[in-house]
Amino acid sequence: MNLSIDTTSPVLVTGATGYVAGQLIKGLLEAGVTVHAAVRDPSNTEKLKYLNEIATTSSGDIKYFSSDLLKEGSYAEAMEGCSIVFHTASPFTIDVKNPQKELVDPAKLGTRNVLEEANRVSTVRRVVLTSSCAAIYGDNADCQKAPGGVLTEDLWNTTSSLEHAAYSYSKTEAEKEAWNIANKQNRWDLVVINPSLVLGPGVNPYATSESFSLVKQFGDGSMKSGAPRFGFGCVDVRDLAYAHMAAAYVPEAKGRHIISGHNSDMFEMAQTLIPKYGNDYPLPRSPMPKWLVWLVAPLVNKAMTRKAISLNVNVPWKADNTKSKRELGVNYRPLADSLNDMFQQMIEHGYFKKG
Ligand code: NAP
Predict the structure, then answer these.
(1) Exposure string (b/e) for 308-320, b if CB count within 10 Å is 16 or more?
(2) Which atom of ligand 1 is nearest to the CA of 41?
(3) From CA 119, how far away is CA 186, in angstroms rounded?
(4) How many CB atoms lie within 10 A of CB 283?
(5) Which of 29, 48, 128, 214 is least enclosed, having the fewest CB within 10 Å?
């Protein structure tokens, strides 16, 4: 779909240093848009150098603003004059000590902070929220209960909590908060993007996203004796960037959008790497039996609780992405391309030793 991109007014991207935001900002800058990039620390030139490199070769401009999700009013300056707000900032981390403080507060209160600012800034006409498929389902066992065993935009995650799958709970609470605020006014509209697991090369190859930790395990030997068939949906970060832009610039875009190219699982994902990297890296070559995952995974990975294993391993993940194709024109690239491009980038940036 050819997007008609308005380059006359700036747009705000929160969480500009992040993995997802990086490719989105690249797309915006290349289209000639002025991006107000909200970051926690604008003096961290090391973290911002990747965005600056793109800005120097693109027709768009980037301006940095210091903002924190938990500081009220801290997006005011960054949002001034903006027509569109892309709210991507939210911690994506699994291993936390205090899920309320580290996940739910920044996700939910941060969303409130950003959207209440949109209520005050009269130039804002649309907010594009990066939610997640995690706001649609909690565990893969929920897919089985979905009509026809397939997740759709009509569903909400009802099974995650502070105690179980806290990241998914944080995304559910944040998206609900966004709809509550959006539905109380009619000056700007809310368009929600619900990506599944994001893969593919990042603009910043060292972003904090869990996407990198997961793919790292394929190549660092952690899964050399097998990978669990832990079902996931997957989407390329570059296709996701396009989806965000379409959500902003397709005038009729409305509601939630599952952005997921492939129904897959960890073992199948790793197999896409074998032809090119199988000789040089200790990639998993067989699926790990569920009983063995149940026995050993909790000892090495805090997020892999026995409950999570029971409800997700050997349980297929399926979602319906037709709305994203029909209404946003998303064209999903092959899963193997996303994984191979990401793995190559990780090799070049020192993520693993050959073994
Ligand atoms: P990421 O690379 O870790 O990016 C997270 C961003 O949020 C960073 O820019 C981070 O800023 C910012 N942030 C965290 N806490 C903040 C705070 N208190 N104040 C201001 N900024 C804060 O992760 P990502 O994968 O790109 O995730 C971006 C968005 O995509 C999130 O909303 C995530 O839930 C969603 N998502 C990701 C995936 C996936 O598989 N990656 C899937 C579905 C949805 P700093 O650089 O300062 O830490």
Answers:
(1) bbebbbbbebbbb
(2) 47
(3) 10
(4) 20
(5) 214
Domains of the chain, by residue range, sit at 11-347
CATH class of the region 11-347: alpha beta
What is the arithmetic mean of pLDDT over 170-192? 98
Read off the pLDDT of residues 108-158 as tens digits, 9 standing for 90 and up. Answer: 999 999 999 999 999 999 999 999 999 999 999 999 999 999 999 999 999
pLDDT of residue 297: 84
Say what the pLDDT of residue 99 is: 96
Q: E strands, 108-184, where? A: 126-130
Using DSSP, state whether 126 is helix, strand or coil: strand
Q: Is the CB of 68 under 6 A from ligand 1?
A: yes
Using the mean position of ligand 1's atoms as its centre, give its distance from the Cα of residue 232 in Å: 19
Which residue in the block uniquely carries the two structure tokens 């240093």? 17
Would you name the residues annotated as active-site residues? 171
> Which phi and psi (to 5°) does residue 39 adopt?
-135, 160
Report the first-to-last Cα separation within the chain, whole angstroms: 44
Which secondary-structure segment (H or E) carries 232? strand 231-236
- Contact (Cβ atoms closer than 8 angstroms) between residue 252 and residue 327: yes
pLDDT at 355: 52
Write out the H or E segment, with its range, that includes residue 54. Answer: helix 45-56
Burial class (CB in 10 A: 0-12, 13-18, 19+), 52: exposed
Ligand 1 pocket member 106 (CB < 6 A): yes
59 token code pair: 């027709």
* Percent of the chain that is helix, strand, coil (3-state, to 5): 40, 15, 40
Region of 221 on the Ramachandran plot (φ > 0 left; ψ -120 to 50 alpha; else beta) = left
Residues 269, 206: contact at Cβ < 8 Å?
no
Instruction: Identify the CA nearest to 218 among candidates 272, 282, 279.
Output: 282
